[in-house]
Write a structure and sequence with these properties.
By secondary structure, this protein is an alpha/beta fold. It is 31% helix and 17% strand. Strand 9, helix 6 and strand 10 form a beta-alpha-beta unit. The chain starts with a strand and ends with a helix.
């Protein structure tokens, strides 16, 4: 069975990652897969064509050649650049975001292309090594703090100097999933005072374990977590109480990082323009939910918004692509673990009797 990898930066200008790195290609070829890779696919992530050839991959000149040769096409994000070239019987594995690409997905399914959505990886111990969402959230949480540190016009840590003592920056993180927890840990390493909030009561202990101060808000609801561990969408009254409770923490923050997302839906607006207007001049907001609409009501996905009071709201897209070498490595390891589910007793084949593959397959 042949796996195809394309140079996604050729149709997505902000992408720098590659879906499979040479070490994972070696593992897959040893298990019996054939891997074809578009020339230059790993270039922006510091992986050369020579490294791929050395582990058994075949380098092809363009994406069209890769798609024609592959039975399984793997992509980081929905591959609009090649989707119309996929044919019946081929398998597409990617982060589909069906809510955003509904028409394109419907067209693929109608044409007989099998589509596996990586965002549907079950939250089970067996599937943990395949969880690309957690891996990319780890990268995004780390990178968000580094961006904030670059843009903040002051130090993160407390400094004692000949000019006197400079207090540490106040950092508030909203959402303590994987990205939020990584943001907390990174901000703490840089010396900031960190407070964090999550609507899920179970997250309070995780926040405290990283040395941050948990923010407790009574929103009048306890059932705030789905069976799969994600936050539930709140009713309007609960959202209003949440915003009111966050107000004093947001307004005294030097750095605000928001990570709240609801799978398959628009991100909740947790920070209003009224709250932002009360923040200190020079404060920085990094909205990690920008790709699904944003957690503030002034977020412009992919743009920097500077408010009249000097607060900067950053809404970066595809943040893991800014750390392409390690982001590619992590995604690739997850994907290689998933692809090895295709190895059956009678050889390599696509089969739906595996519970993980069945969960990923769209219909």
């Amino acid at each position: 069975m042949t796996i195809g990898v394309c140079a996604e930066y050729r149709w997505n200008q902000i992408e720098r990652r590659v879906v499979l790195v040479p070490d994972s290609v070696r593992q897959l070829t040893e298990r019996g897969f054939r891997v074809v890779i578009e020339a230059g696919s790993g270039m922006l992530a510091s992986y050369s064509d020579e490294q791929y050839r050395a582990v058994g991959a075949t380098i092809l000149p363009d994406a069209e050649s890769v798609v024609a040769a592959a039975e399984i096409v793997c992509a980081l994000t929905f591959p609009h650049g090649i989707a119309n070239r996929l044919n019946a019987g081929q398998v597409l594995i990617t982060l589909v975001q069906r809510w955003k690409n509904a028409d394109a997905v419907a067209d693929l399914l109608q044409r007989g292309v099998r589509v596996l959505a990586l965002e549907n990886i079950p939250r089970t111990s067996r599937a943990q090594t395949m969880d690309v969402l957690s891996s990319m959230a780890t990268v995004a949480g780390y990178r968000a703090v580094m961006i904030a540190a670059e843009r903040l016009p002051r130090f993160f840590p407390m400094l004692v100097s000949a000019a006197g003592t400079i207090p540490p920056a106040e950092c508030v993180v909203i959402g303590a999933g994987v990205a939020g927890l990584q943001a907390i840990a990174t901000a703490r390493r840089l010396g900031a005072q960190v407070s964090a909030y999550d609507v899920r009561p179970a997250a309070q202990e995780q926040i405290a374990s990283l040395g941050a101060r948990p923010i407790g808000i009574d929103i009048g609801a306890r059932d705030t977590e789905t069976a799969s561990g994600y936050a539930r969408q709140l009713a309007q009254e609960q959202l209003r109480r949440q915003q009111e409770g966050l107000m004093p923490y947001v307004t005294r923050a030097d750095v605000l990082i928001t990570t709240a997302a609801i799978p398959g839906s628009r991100a909740p607006v947790l920070v209003t323009s009224t709250m932002l207007k009360e923040m200190k001049t020079g404060s920085v907001v990094v909205d990690l939910a920008a790709e699904s609409g944003g957690n503030t009501d002034v977020t412009e996905p992919g743009q920097d918004v500077i408010l009249p009071n000097g607060v900067t709201v950053l809404a970066p897209l595809l943040l893991p692509a800014q750390l392409p070498q390690h982001a590619s490595l992590m995604f690739s390891r997850n994907l290689a673990a998933l692809l090895q589910l295709f190895v059956a007793v009678d050889g390599i084949r696509f089969h739906t009797d595996d519970d993980i593959l069945a969960a990923l397959m769209l219909s």
